[in-house]
Amino acid sequence: MCGRFTLRDPRTAKFDRQPIGELFEAVPRYNIAPSQNVLAITSRAGEPEASFFQWGLVPAWSRDPKGFINARAETLLEKASFRESFQRRRCLIPADGFYEWKRSGKSKQPYYFQLRNEETFAFAGIWDEWQGDGRSILSCAIITTTPNELLASVHDRMPVILAPSSHRGWLNNKATAAELTALLSPFPGEQMKVHTVSDEVNHASIDHEHLIERCEPRPVAQPTLF
Questions:
Q1: Annotated catalytic residue: which of 84, 100, 140, 213?
Q2: Residue 226 confidence class, pLDDT cut points 50, 70, 90
Q3: CA–CA distance from 44 to each of 72, 171, 176 (Å)?
Q4: Distance CA 165, CA 143 (A)
């Protein structure tokens, strides 16, 4: 899954290698968490449009606004919660890194993944609009897939990272399900890097640049021998 990510400089967000324009409300983020607002790029009349969505997709037909932060690429057409959004409401979610946790016994070690060149990239996302209780919620989810060789030692899922050349294809409202599904493959591990980070990232209330700094991994507790 993908449960936390970063966007250190929103001004570097791009669509098909081109800047997406001024983002007056965007601020540097080092620990973006579920239920918070995230920047997303959608298509309006064939042109990219940036706006903010709640992270945690709430299907329009849902009785209450409980959201899904991730959607599995393999079952997008099978799950009622995601099927229509996958077919009609897709988005790009800019990021420049994300966190995953590796379980070791009863503890988890957080890792920070980014591109080797540390540039901003885009997750494949879907969105929907829920209305109820006199309010409207625009929300989104990040699509996940099987891990590449770099992620596999840490977690069994990874977010779908789309190459710039795939941005227009993902937002193309005339694309077929087969064409879209073909884009949802694991990003090449050789183009990424990773390092361990502090447990402080576990706390969504902490959003500071020191979270992405490299730190020594937590020692693995050894079993007691009798």
A1: 100
A2: very low
A3: 25, 10, 18
A4: 18
| Domains of the chain, CATH where assigned | 4-97+118-188 (3.90.1680.10)
- Respond yes or no: is residue 118 known to be catalytic: no
Identify the active-site residue in 2, 74, 84, 216.
2
What pLDDT shows up at residue 219?
Answer: 67
What tokens were used for 212?
């992405």
Return the percentage of the chain with pLDDT > 90, whole number: 78
pLDDT single digits (tens) 185-207 = 999 999 999 999 999 999 999 99
Supply the Cα-derived Rg of the chain in whole angstroms.
18
pLDDT at 175: 96
Range 182-186, long-range pairs (CB < 8 A, 24+ positions):
183/124, 184/73, 184/124, 184/143, 184/145, 184/160, 185/145, 185/160, 186/145, 186/146, 186/147, 186/148, 186/151, 186/158, 186/160
Burial of 129 (0-12, 13-18, 19+ CB in 10 A): middle
DSSP string for residues in 147-188: --TTTTTT-S-EEPEEPGGGHHHHH-TT--HHHHHTT-SPPP
Which among 125, 154, 148 has a CA at the least distance from the CA of 54? 125
